[in-house]
Specification:
Structural class of chain B: mainly alpha
Radius of gyration of chain C: 18 Å
Shape of chain B: globular
Shape of chain C: elongated
Number of domains of chain B: 1
Largest sheet of chain B: none
Largest interface: B-C, 34 and 32 residues
Strand content of chain C: under 5%
Number of helices of chain B: 6
Distance between the termini of chain B: 34 Å
Number of strands of chain B: 0
Strand content of chain B: under 5%
Number of helices of chain C: 10
Helix content of chain B: over 70%
Order of helices and strands of chain B: HHHHHH
Chains: A alpha/beta, B mainly alpha, C mainly alpha
CATH class of chain B: Mainly Alpha
Oligomer: heterotrimer
Structural class of chain C: mainly alpha
Largest sheet of chain C: none
Number of strands of chain C: 0
Number of domains of chain C: 1
Chain lengths: 200, 253, 219
Amino acid sequence: MQAALVARDLYCRRGERPLFGGLNITLEAGEALHLVGPNGIGKTSLLQMLAGLRKPARHGSFNAAGPPGDVLWQGIVSYLEDRTALDAELPLADALAFWARLDGRPVRLEPYGLADLADVPVRYLSTGQRRRAGFARLSLQRADHWLLDEPLNGLDTQGCGMVESLIAEKREAGGIVIVASHQPIAVPGLRTLDLRDHPW
Amino acid sequence: MHGFANPKRFLSLARWLTPLFMLSGLLLAAIALAWGLFAVPPDRLMGETVRIMFIHVPAAWLGMGGWTALAIASLVYLVWRHPLADIAARAVALPGLVFTVICLVTGSIWGRPTWGTWWVWDGRLTSMLVLAFLYLGYIALAQAVAREGASARIPAIFGLVGAVNIPIINRSVVWWNSLHQPPSITMGNSTIDSQFLVPLLLATAGFSLLMGGIVLARMRTVLADMQAEARFRRKVATSGGNHSHQASLQGTA
Amino acid sequence: MRVFATLLRRDLAMLLPGGRRGQSLLPFLFFLAIAMLYPFAVGPDADLLRRTGGGVIWVAALLASILPLDRLVAPDIEQGVFDQLAIRGIADEAAIAIRVLAHWLSFAPLLMVAALPASVLLNLDGSTLSIVVLGLLAGTPGLAAIGVTIAALTAGLRGGTALAGLLLVPLATPILIFGAGSLARPDDGGILLAAAISLVALAIAPFAGGAAIRAARDS
């Protein structure tokens, strides 16, 4: 049976700087992967590549470049990052309502501890609250798998606990969760990928 | 670094091609201008001032040709992401603008004795004026992009959009002229006499070679700057006191 | 279909006057201000105004269309909205096309209405006014498309509005020539040509804008 994620031969360049190369990732349903490495190593670029937002680079000398790598998912992927994609001037509930209408699901704030902030404009929220709002938005999409870029940023212990249990729930449902994070994340059976091991 | 496996080939080619183009261009242009200034009889209607067309017409062709080259380089960059294509497009922009402005200035000088003003809304001059704005816009956009580290595909997209716009501009100006019948700057005889044609072609060839040489020289300068920058960055990255290769961060579960 | 409606609804809420991104009535006041300043500059000679007023309305329309450019695309690129749309399978080209529609709705109808008081200030007669309004109807879609394209290209660049204005001049000149030029001809050739250019601009804008969004992702 085809693995839930097969990523082959990924090369990445940011401007003219080569970041990583020859990367192969295979993950089964329910697995979790932790991306580590210093800032600028390409964790975000890799997540963008896996999300389909960035095309894998071609490698090899210019005229004889091999075909670019590919990313094959079984199921739908969603992506959480620093930018919330929520309109800053709108109250939180209305900002989420846009995505809710697109995804065809109702907005839910209580599971993320945001119920009393429904009428607060997004631009007043703290970093941690934005992260929670990001998860609220993330859950609206009927996605099977999650890509999370620094999901614990700005969250207190309770918030981190929330994220870890959300991740566990997702994995139980058969989803893959890939996390880029500086901080340690308490997730059982987490595999690690250090991008420094895969230079171009 | 993979993107630049080729510059060595380009640079060794450009090293002798640049002076060749520039010198032969200067020579041909000088011959053509001397011919045009001294050996060609004055035009029936426009008199001595017609001689300025030996600069004005080639400048117009090079202004248009410059944008064509810029658009082709932009297309190559967008499709194949070849870094030399981006450098080439940006190298053509300023010479293209300069030739366009030369065309405007010489056109103004040409028209003055006949019409008494420094500017007439002649069809070609007007199109060239709009083209000058296209060049200015491209240069400003490319500089802003380079300054802010944005993607070089942005000016390339504008180069293509501008290329689509140019025939539209030309058609619209011709139509506009037919509405308003402004003064126009042309030769007295409707067809170009062979006496004028040969030095004109020589001048065009000469100026084209000259422009080619200038573009190559600009590309070499840009490449030299980029290589120097890469060298500095490498030094900075591998010198002592840099923490990027130090102990890995916490985070392995 | 629901996707189209949801996106359009959000774009309109952002861009319509009184909307979120602060698109106030300022551009229309600006437009009327130009119409008012012109007679001050050239004198109130009724005949002169009648002959040239239509052209002034066109120039004013062009300038007014530059004002909202920095709010059209840049904030959504900054917030990662296009990325989230792309993840949901909504192409950048589609998002841009809807944005062009919303941008047009946010300035063109009001502009055409504002042409009425402007024509009074400039002493235009009824038939001139109708040619101006028809011309605006034909040309403003093209201006909207060009505006969104330029907004996408200059998103995130400092000095964006001035740069956008500079880029607008050569791209919008043909529409201006044909739209205003229709005032000098007895037939409607100019209006049809302006409409033709609008169609070309509308066809190109989604692809140029989409390419610009993807380029912004890569940097």
